[in-house]
TrEMBL record:
SUPFAM superfamilies in the record: SpoVG-like
Family of this protein: Belongs to the SpoVG family.
Keywords: Cell cycle, Cell division, Septation
InterPro entries in the record: SpoVG, SpoVG_sf
Function: Could be involved in septation.
Gene3D superfamilies reported for this sequence: Stage V sporulation protein G
Protein name, as recorded: Putative septation protein SpoVG
UniProt xrefs under PANTHER family: SEPTATION PROTEIN SPOVG-RELATED
Pfam family, one: SpoVG
GO biological process: division septum assembly; sporulation resulting in formation of a cellular spore
Length: 95
């Protein structure tokens, strides 16, 4: 599995949510609405989720193992850092 494209949409408002990302895998499959969040221990990603009937949030799509999660996270965070230097990035309102 290769992440062949990462699209970063930075969030304009102040807060922990810094960006919303879409990734393309193997030029064939896209995952939208991955969130880049600034936590107490640093930046991390949150996979797309939906609120269940019990009020809990459940991931819609997620990696099966920690190695894949780390690879996706490091790729996204590297692209996010690049986007901070790029003045042409798109800025969207907080979701």
């Amino acid at each position: 599995m290769q992440i062949t494209d990462v699209r970063v949409r930075k969030v304009a408002k102040e807060g922990k949510l810094k960006a919303v990302v879409s990734i393309t895998i193997d030029d064939e499959f896209v995952v939208h609405d991955i969130k880049v969040i600034e936590g107490e221990k640093g930046m991390f990603i949150a996979m797309p989720s939906k609120k269940a009937l019990d009020g809990e949030y459940r991931d819609i799509a997620h990696p099966i193992n920690s190695g894949t999660r780390e690879r996706i996270q490091s790729t996204i965070l590297a692209k996010y850092e690049e986007s901070l230097e790029d003045e042409d990035s798109i800025v969207v309102d907080e979701m």
